[in-house]
Protein backbone atom coordinates (compact mmCIF):
# COMPACT_ATOMS: atom_id res chain seq x y z
CA UNK A 1 0.00 0.00 0.00
CA UNK A 2 1.34 3.46 -0.90
CA UNK A 3 1.86 6.00 1.81
CA UNK A 4 -0.27 9.02 0.94
CA UNK A 5 0.73 11.05 3.94
CA UNK A 6 4.05 12.29 2.59
CA UNK A 7 3.06 13.15 -0.95
CA UNK A 8 -0.29 14.25 -2.28
CA UNK A 9 -1.68 11.89 -4.90
CA UNK A 10 -2.14 13.55 -8.29
CA UNK A 11 -4.71 12.14 -10.68
CA UNK A 12 -3.08 10.96 -13.90
CA UNK A 13 -5.57 11.01 -16.75
CA UNK A 14 -5.77 9.83 -20.34
CA UNK A 15 -7.88 12.24 -22.40
CA UNK A 16 -10.14 10.81 -25.11
CA UNK A 17 -12.17 12.61 -27.76
CA UNK A 18 -14.34 11.50 -30.66
CA UNK A 19 -14.79 13.42 -33.90
CA UNK A 20 -17.77 11.94 -35.73
CA UNK A 21 -19.35 13.15 -38.95
CA UNK A 22 -22.88 12.84 -37.56
CA UNK A 23 -22.23 14.93 -34.42
CA UNK A 24 -22.68 18.70 -34.33
CA UNK A 25 -19.64 20.97 -34.10
CA UNK A 26 -20.54 21.64 -30.47
CA UNK A 27 -20.60 17.89 -29.60
CA UNK A 28 -17.41 16.94 -31.44
CA UNK A 29 -13.90 16.83 -30.07
CA UNK A 30 -11.20 18.75 -31.96
CA UNK A 31 -7.51 19.34 -31.31
CA UNK A 32 -8.27 22.73 -29.73
CA UNK A 33 -11.10 21.38 -27.54
CA UNK A 34 -8.73 18.59 -26.38
CA UNK A 35 -6.14 21.25 -25.48
CA UNK A 36 -8.84 23.05 -23.51
CA UNK A 37 -9.74 19.76 -21.78
CA UNK A 38 -6.07 19.35 -20.83
CA UNK A 39 -6.09 22.90 -19.35
CA UNK A 40 -9.30 22.05 -17.44
CA UNK A 41 -7.61 18.93 -16.05
CA UNK A 42 -4.63 21.02 -14.93
CA UNK A 43 -7.02 23.49 -13.24
CA UNK A 44 -8.64 20.56 -11.40
CA UNK A 45 -5.21 19.49 -10.14
CA UNK A 46 -4.56 16.51 -12.44
CA UNK A 47 -1.99 15.80 -15.15
CA UNK A 48 -2.48 14.51 -18.68
CA UNK A 49 -0.47 11.35 -19.44
CA UNK A 50 -1.87 10.63 -22.90
CA UNK A 51 -4.36 11.83 -25.52
CA UNK A 52 -6.46 9.83 -27.97
CA UNK A 53 -8.51 11.61 -30.64
CA UNK A 54 -10.65 9.14 -32.58
CA UNK A 55 -12.22 9.84 -35.99
CA UNK A 56 -15.29 7.72 -36.65
CA UNK A 57 -18.47 8.09 -38.73
CA UNK A 58 -20.86 7.53 -35.83
CA UNK A 59 -20.41 7.01 -32.08
CA UNK A 60 -20.63 3.41 -30.88
CA UNK A 61 -23.90 3.12 -28.87
CA UNK A 62 -22.25 0.87 -26.25
CA UNK A 63 -18.70 2.18 -25.78
CA UNK A 64 -18.91 5.48 -27.71
CA UNK A 65 -15.46 4.96 -29.35
CA UNK A 66 -15.75 1.29 -30.42
CA UNK A 67 -14.21 -1.91 -29.03
CA UNK A 68 -10.84 -1.60 -30.87
CA UNK A 69 -10.27 1.91 -29.56
CA UNK A 70 -11.29 0.85 -26.02
CA UNK A 71 -8.55 -1.83 -26.11
CA UNK A 72 -6.03 0.79 -27.31
CA UNK A 73 -7.02 3.23 -24.54
CA UNK A 74 -6.79 0.41 -21.95
CA UNK A 75 -3.20 -0.34 -23.04
CA UNK A 76 -2.34 3.35 -22.79
CA UNK A 77 -3.94 3.57 -19.30
CA UNK A 78 -1.87 0.62 -18.06
CA UNK A 79 1.38 1.80 -19.70
CA UNK A 80 1.05 5.37 -18.36
CA UNK A 81 -0.21 4.34 -14.90
CA UNK A 82 -3.33 6.46 -15.39
CA UNK A 83 -5.94 6.63 -12.62
CA UNK A 84 -8.78 7.91 -14.80
CA UNK A 85 -9.96 8.50 -18.34
CA UNK A 86 -11.70 11.77 -19.25
CA UNK A 87 -13.80 12.17 -22.39
CA UNK A 88 -14.13 15.50 -24.17
CA UNK A 89 -17.61 14.49 -25.38
CA UNK A 90 -20.72 13.98 -23.25
CA UNK A 91 -21.25 10.31 -22.35
CA UNK A 92 -24.55 8.66 -21.51
CA UNK A 93 -24.72 7.06 -18.03
CA UNK A 94 -24.64 3.54 -19.56
CA UNK A 95 -21.61 4.35 -21.77
CA UNK A 96 -19.83 5.74 -18.71
CA UNK A 97 -20.60 2.53 -16.81
CA UNK A 98 -19.45 0.19 -19.61
CA UNK A 99 -16.24 2.14 -20.23
CA UNK A 100 -15.40 2.23 -16.53
CA UNK A 101 -15.84 -1.58 -16.34
CA UNK A 102 -13.78 -2.25 -19.45
CA UNK A 103 -10.96 0.20 -18.75
CA UNK A 104 -10.72 -0.65 -15.06
CA UNK A 105 -10.44 3.03 -13.98
CA UNK A 106 -12.88 5.89 -13.28
CA UNK A 107 -14.33 7.42 -16.45
CA UNK A 108 -15.51 11.04 -16.45
CA UNK A 109 -16.80 13.27 -19.20
CA UNK A 110 -16.15 16.98 -19.70
CA UNK A 111 -19.26 17.96 -17.66
CA UNK A 112 -18.09 15.99 -14.61
CA UNK A 113 -14.64 17.61 -14.81
CA UNK A 114 -16.12 21.12 -15.04
CA UNK A 115 -18.37 20.34 -12.06
CA UNK A 116 -15.36 19.18 -10.07
CA UNK A 117 -13.53 22.47 -10.77
CA UNK A 118 -16.62 24.46 -9.85
CA UNK A 119 -16.87 22.54 -6.56
CA UNK A 120 -13.23 23.42 -5.77
CA UNK A 121 -13.60 27.08 -6.71
CA UNK A 122 -16.98 28.13 -5.24
CA UNK A 123 -16.48 30.37 -2.21
CA UNK A 124 -19.75 32.11 -1.38
CA UNK A 125 -22.85 30.40 -0.04
CA UNK A 126 -24.62 31.06 -3.33
CA UNK A 127 -21.77 29.66 -5.42
CA UNK A 128 -21.73 26.48 -3.34
CA UNK A 129 -25.51 26.07 -3.57
CA UNK A 130 -25.35 26.36 -7.34
CA UNK A 131 -22.54 23.82 -7.69
CA UNK A 132 -24.31 21.35 -5.40
CA UNK A 133 -27.53 21.68 -7.38
CA UNK A 134 -25.71 21.03 -10.67
CA UNK A 135 -23.88 18.03 -9.17
CA UNK A 136 -27.10 16.39 -7.99
CA UNK A 137 -28.75 16.94 -11.38
CA UNK A 138 -25.73 15.32 -13.03
CA UNK A 139 -25.73 12.44 -10.55
CA UNK A 140 -29.41 11.51 -10.77
CA UNK A 141 -29.38 9.60 -14.09
CA UNK A 142 -26.07 7.95 -13.14
CA UNK A 143 -27.25 6.38 -9.89
CA UNK A 144 -28.04 2.95 -11.40
CA UNK A 145 -24.38 2.32 -12.20
CA UNK A 146 -23.40 3.06 -8.65
CA UNK A 147 -25.45 0.11 -7.46
CA UNK A 148 -23.91 -2.29 -9.99
CA UNK A 149 -21.58 -3.61 -7.27
CA UNK A 150 -24.54 -5.36 -5.62
CA UNK A 151 -25.07 -7.47 -8.72
CA UNK A 152 -21.33 -8.14 -9.08
CA UNK A 153 -21.26 -9.71 -5.62
CA UNK A 154 -23.61 -12.48 -6.76
CA UNK A 155 -22.63 -15.97 -7.94
CA UNK A 156 -20.94 -16.03 -11.32
CA UNK A 157 -23.45 -18.31 -13.01
CA UNK A 158 -27.25 -18.42 -13.17
CA UNK A 159 -29.67 -15.86 -11.76
CA UNK A 160 -28.90 -13.56 -8.85
CA UNK A 161 -29.62 -15.27 -5.52
CA UNK A 162 -32.72 -14.13 -3.65
CA UNK A 163 -32.08 -11.12 -1.52
CA UNK A 164 -29.32 -9.52 -3.58
CA UNK A 165 -31.58 -7.76 -6.04
CA UNK A 166 -34.06 -6.26 -3.57
CA UNK A 167 -31.75 -4.22 -1.34
CA UNK A 168 -29.96 -2.68 -4.33
CA UNK A 169 -33.21 -1.61 -5.91
CA UNK A 170 -34.57 -0.35 -2.59
CA UNK A 171 -31.38 1.56 -1.89
CA UNK A 172 -31.50 3.04 -5.38
CA UNK A 173 -35.07 4.24 -4.88
CA UNK A 174 -34.20 5.67 -1.46
CA UNK A 175 -31.24 7.51 -2.95
CA UNK A 176 -33.38 8.82 -5.81
CA UNK A 177 -35.97 10.20 -3.41
CA UNK A 178 -33.23 11.67 -1.22
CA UNK A 179 -31.63 13.44 -4.22
CA UNK A 180 -34.99 14.74 -5.47
CA UNK A 181 -35.57 16.18 -1.98
CA UNK A 182 -32.08 17.74 -1.96
CA UNK A 183 -32.67 19.30 -5.41
CA UNK A 184 -36.01 20.79 -4.28
CA UNK A 185 -34.39 22.21 -1.13
CA UNK A 186 -31.44 23.70 -3.05
CA UNK A 187 -33.78 25.30 -5.60
CA UNK A 188 -35.74 26.80 -2.70
CA UNK A 189 -32.54 28.19 -1.12
CA UNK A 190 -31.44 29.67 -4.45
CA UNK A 191 -34.82 31.36 -4.86
CA UNK A 192 -34.21 33.06 -1.51
CA UNK A 193 -30.74 34.17 -2.64
CA UNK A 194 -32.30 35.65 -5.80
CA UNK A 195 -34.96 37.43 -3.73
CA UNK A 196 -32.28 39.07 -1.55
CA UNK A 197 -30.31 40.05 -4.67
CA UNK A 198 -33.51 41.51 -6.13
CA UNK A 199 -33.95 43.73 -3.05
CA UNK A 200 -30.32 44.86 -3.27
CA UNK A 201 -30.77 45.55 -6.98
CA UNK A 202 -33.87 47.68 -6.37
CA UNK A 203 -31.90 49.70 -3.85
CA UNK A 204 -29.17 50.24 -6.45
CA UNK A 205 -31.69 51.28 -9.10
CA UNK A 206 -33.14 53.77 -6.61
CA UNK A 207 -29.66 55.21 -6.10
CA UNK A 208 -29.45 55.42 -9.88
CA UNK A 209 -26.00 53.86 -9.99
CA UNK A 210 -25.55 52.22 -13.41
CA UNK A 211 -24.36 48.60 -13.49
CA UNK A 212 -21.68 47.28 -15.85
CA UNK A 213 -21.23 43.49 -16.14
CA UNK A 214 -18.00 41.96 -17.45
CA UNK A 215 -18.59 38.76 -19.43
CA UNK A 216 -16.34 36.59 -21.55
CA UNK A 217 -14.86 33.19 -22.22
CA UNK A 218 -12.99 31.62 -19.32
CA UNK A 219 -9.43 32.95 -18.98
CA UNK A 220 -10.05 35.95 -21.27
CA UNK A 221 -8.70 38.27 -18.55
CA UNK A 222 -11.92 39.55 -16.92
CA UNK A 223 -10.58 39.71 -13.34
CA UNK A 224 -7.34 41.35 -14.51
CA UNK A 225 -9.43 43.98 -16.34
CA UNK A 226 -11.60 44.61 -13.26
CA UNK A 227 -8.45 45.03 -11.14
CA UNK A 228 -6.88 47.37 -13.71
CA UNK A 229 -9.99 49.55 -13.95
CA UNK A 230 -10.84 49.76 -10.24
CA UNK A 231 -7.45 49.29 -8.61
CA UNK A 232 -8.79 46.34 -6.59
CA UNK A 233 -6.88 43.13 -5.97
CA UNK A 234 -9.15 40.25 -6.92
CA UNK A 235 -6.98 37.14 -7.44
CA UNK A 236 -6.36 36.88 -11.20
CA UNK A 237 -4.55 33.72 -12.24
CA UNK A 238 -3.87 32.21 -15.61
CA UNK A 239 -6.20 29.28 -15.16
CA UNK A 240 -9.71 28.38 -16.25
CA UNK A 241 -12.68 29.24 -14.02
CA UNK A 242 -10.64 31.22 -11.53
CA UNK A 243 -13.64 33.44 -10.78
CA UNK A 244 -16.88 31.73 -9.85
CA UNK A 245 -18.50 34.12 -7.44
CA UNK A 246 -19.58 37.51 -8.74
CA UNK A 247 -17.35 40.34 -7.50
CA UNK A 248 -18.72 43.90 -7.63
CA UNK A 249 -16.63 47.07 -7.31
CA UNK A 250 -17.36 50.77 -7.85
CA UNK A 251 -15.64 52.58 -10.68
CA UNK A 252 -15.49 56.37 -10.74
CA UNK A 253 -15.71 57.46 -14.37
CA UNK A 254 -15.82 61.19 -13.58
CA UNK A 255 -16.62 63.25 -10.50
CA UNK A 256 -20.30 63.12 -11.49
CA UNK A 257 -20.52 59.54 -12.78
CA UNK A 258 -19.85 56.44 -10.67
CA UNK A 259 -20.80 52.94 -11.86
CA UNK A 260 -20.92 49.49 -10.29
CA UNK A 261 -18.84 46.98 -12.22
CA UNK A 262 -19.26 43.18 -11.78
CA UNK A 263 -17.02 40.32 -12.80
CA UNK A 264 -18.89 37.10 -13.71
CA UNK A 265 -18.05 33.41 -14.13
CA UNK A 266 -16.27 32.63 -17.41
CA UNK A 267 -18.19 30.88 -20.16
CA UNK A 268 -16.87 27.77 -21.91
CA UNK A 269 -17.96 25.70 -24.88
CA UNK A 270 -19.90 22.51 -24.10
CA UNK A 271 -20.96 23.93 -20.73
CA UNK A 272 -23.38 21.32 -19.28
CA UNK A 273 -26.93 22.62 -19.64
CA UNK A 274 -27.89 22.04 -15.99
CA UNK A 275 -24.83 24.10 -15.08
CA UNK A 276 -26.09 27.03 -17.13
CA UNK A 277 -29.42 26.58 -15.34
CA UNK A 278 -27.76 26.44 -11.92
CA UNK A 279 -25.64 29.50 -12.64
CA UNK A 280 -28.49 31.65 -13.87
CA UNK A 281 -28.69 33.27 -10.42
CA UNK A 282 -25.10 34.50 -10.83
CA UNK A 283 -25.59 35.40 -14.46
CA UNK A 284 -29.02 37.01 -14.05
CA UNK A 285 -27.06 40.17 -13.21
CA UNK A 286 -26.47 40.36 -16.95
CA UNK A 287 -30.11 40.98 -17.81
CA UNK A 288 -30.22 43.86 -15.27
CA UNK A 289 -26.94 45.43 -16.34
CA UNK A 290 -26.98 48.80 -18.13
CA UNK A 291 -23.89 47.86 -20.12
CA UNK A 292 -22.00 44.64 -20.90
CA UNK A 293 -18.25 44.50 -21.44
CA UNK A 294 -17.59 41.39 -23.53
CA UNK A 295 -13.92 40.60 -22.91
CA UNK A 296 -12.28 38.65 -25.75
CA UNK A 297 -8.78 37.16 -25.59
CA UNK A 298 -7.40 38.57 -28.85
CA UNK A 299 -4.17 36.56 -28.46
CA UNK A 300 -6.09 33.26 -28.75
CA UNK A 301 -6.34 31.96 -32.34
CA UNK A 302 -9.79 30.52 -31.46
CA UNK A 303 -11.18 33.87 -30.27
CA UNK A 304 -13.98 33.93 -32.87
CA UNK A 305 -15.35 30.57 -31.70
CA UNK A 306 -15.01 31.60 -28.06
CA UNK A 307 -16.84 34.89 -28.71
CA UNK A 308 -19.66 32.93 -30.43
CA UNK A 309 -20.10 30.75 -27.31
CA UNK A 310 -20.44 33.89 -25.16
CA UNK A 311 -22.87 35.45 -27.68
CA UNK A 312 -25.18 32.42 -27.52
CA UNK A 313 -25.16 32.40 -23.70
CA UNK A 314 -25.87 36.15 -23.55
CA UNK A 315 -28.85 35.47 -25.83
CA UNK A 316 -30.00 32.51 -23.70
CA UNK A 317 -29.88 34.69 -20.58
CA UNK A 318 -32.10 37.33 -22.19
CA UNK A 319 -29.42 40.03 -22.29
CA UNK A 320 -28.96 40.34 -26.06
CA UNK A 321 -30.65 43.78 -26.11
CA UNK A 322 -28.30 45.25 -23.47
CA UNK A 323 -25.81 47.80 -24.89
CA UNK A 324 -22.38 46.24 -25.22
CA UNK A 325 -18.72 47.09 -25.76
CA UNK A 326 -16.45 44.36 -27.15
CA UNK A 327 -13.16 44.61 -25.28
CA UNK A 328 -10.32 42.89 -27.16
CA UNK A 329 -7.89 42.15 -24.33
CA UNK A 330 -4.23 41.02 -24.44
CA UNK A 331 -3.63 43.25 -27.48
CA UNK A 332 0.07 43.30 -26.51
CA UNK A 333 0.12 39.62 -27.56
CA UNK A 334 -2.08 39.97 -30.68
CA UNK A 335 -0.50 38.22 -33.69
CA UNK A 336 -2.78 39.46 -36.53
CA UNK A 337 -2.02 42.36 -38.87
CA UNK A 338 -4.91 44.72 -38.06
CA UNK A 339 -6.33 45.03 -34.56
CA UNK A 340 -10.16 44.73 -34.37
CA UNK A 341 -11.77 48.18 -34.51
CA UNK A 342 -15.22 49.75 -34.71
CA UNK A 343 -17.70 51.95 -32.87
CA UNK A 344 -18.37 49.52 -30.00
CA UNK A 345 -14.93 47.92 -30.02
CA UNK A 346 -11.86 48.79 -27.96
CA UNK A 347 -8.48 47.03 -27.82
CA UNK A 348 -6.76 46.97 -24.44
CA UNK A 349 -4.10 45.22 -22.45
CA UNK A 350 -5.33 44.85 -18.88
CA UNK A 351 -1.77 43.87 -17.97
CA UNK A 352 0.09 46.89 -19.42
CA UNK A 353 -2.80 49.38 -19.09
CA UNK A 354 -2.88 50.15 -22.83
CA UNK A 355 -6.32 51.32 -24.04
CA UNK A 356 -7.89 51.52 -20.55
CA UNK A 357 -8.43 55.31 -20.69
CA UNK A 358 -10.30 54.92 -23.96
CA UNK A 359 -12.42 52.13 -22.40
CA UNK A 360 -13.25 54.39 -19.41
CA UNK A 361 -14.29 57.16 -21.81
CA UNK A 362 -16.50 54.75 -23.77
CA UNK A 363 -18.19 53.56 -20.55
CA UNK A 364 -18.71 57.20 -19.54
CA UNK A 365 -20.19 58.13 -22.95
CA UNK A 366 -22.79 55.38 -22.63
CA UNK A 367 -23.64 55.72 -18.94
CA UNK A 368 -23.09 59.31 -17.88
CA UNK A 369 -26.65 60.59 -17.43
CA UNK A 370 -25.52 64.23 -17.76
CA UNK A 371 -25.46 64.72 -13.98
CA UNK A 372 -24.04 67.97 -12.58
CA UNK A 373 -22.72 69.12 -9.23
CA UNK A 374 -25.00 71.89 -7.96
CA UNK A 375 -25.53 73.94 -4.81
CA UNK A 376 -29.09 74.33 -3.56
CA UNK A 377 -30.48 76.69 -0.95
CA UNK A 378 -33.52 75.07 0.67
CA UNK A 379 -35.80 77.05 3.00
CA UNK A 380 -36.45 75.24 6.29
CA UNK A 381 -40.17 74.85 5.49
CA UNK A 382 -39.11 72.85 2.40
CA UNK A 383 -36.73 70.63 4.38
CA UNK A 384 -38.60 67.56 3.05
CA UNK A 385 -36.79 68.08 -0.26
CA UNK A 386 -33.59 67.03 1.48
CA UNK A 387 -35.04 63.51 1.77
CA UNK A 388 -35.69 63.50 -1.98
CA UNK A 389 -32.11 64.57 -2.60
CA UNK A 390 -30.74 61.79 -0.36
CA UNK A 391 -32.86 59.25 -2.26
CA UNK A 392 -32.30 60.45 -5.81
CA UNK A 393 -28.99 62.35 -5.87
CA UNK A 394 -25.47 62.00 -4.53
CA UNK A 395 -25.45 64.42 -1.57
CA UNK A 396 -21.92 65.63 -0.81
CA UNK A 397 -22.41 68.22 1.93
CA UNK A 398 -25.20 69.86 3.98
CA UNK A 399 -24.79 73.08 5.96
CA UNK A 400 -27.47 74.58 8.20
CA UNK A 401 -27.43 78.41 8.21
CA UNK A 402 -30.16 80.87 7.25
CA UNK A 403 -31.21 78.19 4.77
CA UNK A 404 -30.13 74.58 4.25
CA UNK A 405 -27.19 74.68 1.84
CA UNK A 406 -26.80 71.41 -0.05
CA UNK A 407 -24.09 70.42 -2.52
CA UNK A 408 -25.18 67.41 -4.57
CA UNK A 409 -24.67 65.68 -7.91
CA UNK A 410 -28.10 65.73 -9.60
CA UNK A 411 -29.55 64.33 -12.81
CA UNK A 412 -31.03 66.85 -15.28
CA UNK A 413 -34.54 65.65 -14.33
CA UNK A 414 -33.97 66.34 -10.61
CA UNK A 415 -32.37 69.72 -11.38
CA UNK A 416 -35.56 70.64 -13.24
CA UNK A 417 -37.63 69.82 -10.13
CA UNK A 418 -35.31 71.86 -7.86
CA UNK A 419 -34.81 74.73 -10.30
CA UNK A 420 -36.08 77.52 -7.98
CA UNK A 421 -33.56 76.57 -5.25
CA UNK A 422 -30.46 76.38 -7.47
CA UNK A 423 -27.67 78.76 -6.46
CA UNK A 424 -24.98 77.74 -8.94
CA UNK A 425 -24.53 75.04 -11.50
UniProtKB/TrEMBL annotation:
Keywords, in A-Z order: Coiled coil, Cytoplasm, GTP-binding, Magnesium, Metal-binding, Nucleotide-binding
Localisation per UniProt entry: Cytoplasm
Binding site for Mg(2+): 223, 243
Residue sites binding GTP per the record: 216-223, 241-245, 263-266, 329-332, 349-351
UniProt cross-references to PROSITE patterns, sorted A to Z: G_HFLX
Keyword field contains Transcription: no
One Pfam family hit: GTP-bdg_N
Quaternary state and interactors: Monomer. Associates with the 50S ribosomal subunit.
Entry superkingdom: Bacteria
Protein name: GTPase HflX
GO cellular component: cytoplasm
Domain Hflx-type G: 210-371
Taxonomic lineage of the native organism: Bacteria, Bacillati, Bacillota, Clostridia, Eubacteriales
InterPro entries attached to this UniProt entry: G_HFLX_dom (IPR030394), GTP-bd (IPR006073), GTP-bd_M (IPR032305), GTPase_HflX (IPR016496), GTPase_HflX_N (IPR025121), GTPase_HflX_N_sf (IPR042108), HflX_C (IPR045498), P-loop_NTPase (IPR027417)
Organism of this sequence: Candidatus Intestinimonas merdavium
HAMAP family per record: GTPase_HflX (MF_00900)
Family, similarity comment: Belongs to the TRAFAC class OBG-HflX-like GTPase superfamily. HflX GTPase family.
Record bears the keyword Magnesium: yes
Amino acid sequence: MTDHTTEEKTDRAVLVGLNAGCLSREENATESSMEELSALLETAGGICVGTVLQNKDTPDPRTFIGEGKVAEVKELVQAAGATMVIFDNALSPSQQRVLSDELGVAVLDRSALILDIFAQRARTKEGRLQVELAQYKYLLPRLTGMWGHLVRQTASGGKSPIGTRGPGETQLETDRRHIHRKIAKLEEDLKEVRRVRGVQRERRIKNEMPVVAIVGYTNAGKSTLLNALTGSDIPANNRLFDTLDTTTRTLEISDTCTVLISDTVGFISKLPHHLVEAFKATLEELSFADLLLHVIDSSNPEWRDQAAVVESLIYELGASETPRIDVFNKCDRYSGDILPHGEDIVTVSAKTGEGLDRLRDMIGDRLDAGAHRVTLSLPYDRGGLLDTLYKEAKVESVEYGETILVTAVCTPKLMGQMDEFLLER
